[in-house]
Amino acid sequence: MANNHIESQLQIVEQAIEFLSKVSFEHYLQVLKPHFNGSMGDHMRHILDHYIALQQGLSTQTIDYNRRNRDSNVALCPNTALLSWSQIKTWLIEISDLDANLSLTVMCETSLTTSQNSQTNSTLGRELLFVSSHAIHHFSLLLVMSSLQGKHCSPNFGLGPATVSHLRQSA
Fold first, then answer.
1. Where are the domains of the chain?
2. pTM recorded for the entire structure
3. Element (H or E) spanning 117, and its range?
4. pLDDT for 112-135, tens place per residue?
């Protein structure tokens, strides 16, 4: 896999680690109703669930994004989330030599009214792009939550790479 592909993944991991190292337990667990139904911890667990689904499915080449660990301590403790992100970092480095075009089958529930799973073909590179884009999306929600709590995040936290490139070019 191209080193820049893994490097971009590691940038996502570093953003998560930096965020978690600065958040208090109280803020991590706070649910900011009516704006949000879940805490920062719930969002962090959700992000990690997707990375873990990709990691666990890689050996069988079948990724099941429906598999979630909703009872995980990651949602309750920023230190547990830090440990999980460190494990993801190690895993990403380990897979850096794999072919980005490695074929995968992806499963995901797609209906709100019935239990309906869809399957599609994908590649490792595409799924890495998905989990990082998904993480950035949730980072933007964490950014809003932090703002509502009166806290500030790093300037690029929650921004997509194309947005950061645009801002650089516009400066």
1. 3-170
2. 0.94
3. strand 117-123
4. 888 888 999 999 999 999 999 999
